[in-house]
Amino acid sequence: MEPTVQQFPPFRVGAAHPAHDDHGQHEHHEPNFWQKYIFSTDHKVIGIQYGFMALCFMLFGFFLMMLMRWQIAHPGVAVPLIGPLLEKILGAPAAGGAISPDLYNSFGAMHGTIMVFLGVVPLAFAAFGNYVVPLMIGAPDMTFPRINMASFHAFFLGGVVMLVSFFIPGGAAQAGWTSYSPLASTIPTNGQAFWLVGMVLLITSSLLGAVNFIATIIQLRAPGMTWMRLPFFVWAQFVTAFILLLAFPPLEAAGVLQLMDNVAHTSFFLPTGLAVGGQLADRSGGGSPLLWQHLFWFLGHPEVYVLILPAMGIVAEVIANNTRKPLWGYKSLVYSALFVGFLSFIVWAHHMYLTGMGQKIATFFQTTTMIISVPSVIILTCMFLSLWGGSIRINTPMLFALGFLPMFGIGGLTGLPLGLAASDLYLHDTYYVIAHFHYVVAPGTIFALFAGVYFWFPKMTGRRMNEFWGRVHFWCSFVFMNLVFMPMFAQGIKGMLRRMSDGAVNYSAARVPNAIDTLPGTVMELNTWILWAAIALGIAQIPFIVNLFWSIGHGDKVENDNPWGATTLDWQTPTPPPHGNFAHEPHVVRGPYEYSAPGHASDFTPQNESAENRNAESEKRKDEAPH
Amino acid sequence: MEIPYTVQNRPDTGIYNAKLGIWLFLASEVMLFGGLFSAYILLRVGAEPGMWPHGWLNVTLGTVNTLLLALSAITTLLAWAACKVRDFTKFKIFHACTILLALTFLGIKSYEYRDKLIHYEIALASGKFADGHLVEKSADFNLAKKTGTVTLHGRIVEDEKELMDLRSPAAQSAKLDEVTIAAADIKKMENYGPKHNTFTAIYFTLTGLHALHILGGTLVIFYFWAFGGAMWKKDPERFTNRIEVSGLFWHFVDLVWIFLFPVLYLT
Amino acid sequence: MSESEKPVSLQSYVRLCAVVFLVVVCTTSAMIATSFSHIGEGWTLKVALILAIAVVNAFLVAGYLMHLLSEKKLIYTVLVFTVFFFIGLMGLTVWATNGFPPGTASH
Question: Which of A218, A180, A228, A212 is nearest to A1 (CA)?
Answer without folding.
Answer: A228
